[in-house]
Amino acid sequence: MSDAFRDLLRKVGSGSHTSEHLTREEAASATRLMLQQEATPAQIGAFMIAHRIKRPTGEELAGMLDAYDQLGPKLNTISSMTLPIVMGIPYDGRSRTTPVSPLVTLILAAAGCPVVLHGGRRMPTKEGIPLVEVWQALGVDWTTLSLEQTQAVFAETSVGFVYLPTHFPLSDNLVPYREQIGKRPPFATVELFWCPYAGEALLISGFVHPPTEEMARSAFALRGTRQFITVKGLEGSCDLPRDRTCIVGINQMVNGESTFERLLLHPRDYGFAAEEVPLLPTPKLLAEMQAVLQGGQTELSKAAIWNSGFYLWRSGLCPDLEAGFTVAEELLTTGKAAQKLAELTQAVQVIDGTTGKNLLKTSLY
Questions:
Q1: Which of 90, 189, 237, 254 yields a CA-CA distance of 20 to 30 A from 207?
Q2: Which helix (H) or strand (E) element contains residue 293?
Q3: With contact defined as beta carbons under 8 Å apart, do 240 and 228 qualify?
Q4: Taking phi first (over 0 means left), then psi (-120 to 50 degrees means alpha), and beta for anything else, what does residue 171 get?
Q5: Which cellular component, as a GO term, is one annotated location (predicted)?
Q6: What is the dihedral of CA 300, 239, 125, 170, to 10 degrees?
């Protein structure tokens, strides 16, 4: 048993009247003790449920992110014309609506904007379809690659995926606690704001509840994160809704100053208002995505253009939102997004094969 962790647990688990917030350093220490399993299972479970009831502060979230930075993996920087986009999407997946981020990723990468994704396998308590399964259906199996191999794919294609079970087992080892306590622990929030990229990036974080965004802004301010976007997206993801107003927060540097702007996007103003595309069984989902990549005009293709246009604009590759929509549609209809998928599939298959492993060793050493 960790006596140090017991003292931290006592602070957050003493009830509504006597519990205390942790300092940033204490939160980082508690997170390290849990990730490294120096705290006992009883202590870890107790902390998760107590901290969920108390609710983490921005300072605590900053400390937890500090620990993730210290112990977690990162993809190294690559040369690009724009800041890479890192998408923070709930690890427990989707259960109601079709995830559009894989299509958005291909469109952005085809336009020259690198994209870093991260996540794991099916995860409690939601057990929705995770991104990695969508990519597997598209022919890209990130689960087989080491971090070094993922880095090689990222450098070649501008798309990378940090897969928790392989690349960050310390964090993946805490996943069973989610099922045992029956609730999302604070780590589910940390994952939305974690940046597993070594250089400067544009961090996109999905959220559902407004207090989550407030925590993010506070934590980012403490950690010096100046370029980020928060999205009240579909099922907490970075996918912009089409059946309601999009609530987006944009933090950027203007004349050396960090500024935050609230943006309300009304899909109807741009001709994209519609009901959300429901989640389909995987074979049908794959067929729908393939149709989009072949230039088909479907509701899913409109969702892909709506989202990609926004992110092309915010990445700086397009001067305004309307130009973003035009470029996104062009990348689909001309087959360039489909070409990016073929390039990505080939890169993963080659690097994961015997020949690819030899090539990888040559390129690394």
A1: 254
A2: helix 282-293
A3: no
A4: alpha
A5: cytosol
A6: 120
Alpha carbon 302 to chain centroid distance? 22
CATH class of 85-339: alpha beta
Q: What is the dihedral of CA 304, 310, 312, 316, to 10 degrees?
A: 180
> CA torsion angle for 132, 129, 189, 233 (degrees, to 10)?
100
Structure tokens at 233: 């997206």
DSSP tally for the chain: helices H, then strands E = 17, 7
Domain with CATH 1.20.970.10 in the chain: 3-71
Is pTM beyond 0.90? Reply is: yes
Check: CB of residue 153 under 8 Å from CB of residue 356.
Answer: no
**Lowest-pLDDT choice from 11-20, 170-179, 302-311, 340-349:** 11-20
Q: Domain 3-71, CATH 1.20.970.10 — does that match?
A: yes
What is the model's pLDDT at position 364?
29
Q: Which residues, in sequence order, are CB contacts of 147 under 8 Å at separation 6+? A: 73, 75, 162, 166, 167
Lowest mean pLDDT among 25-34, 304-313, 347-356: 347-356
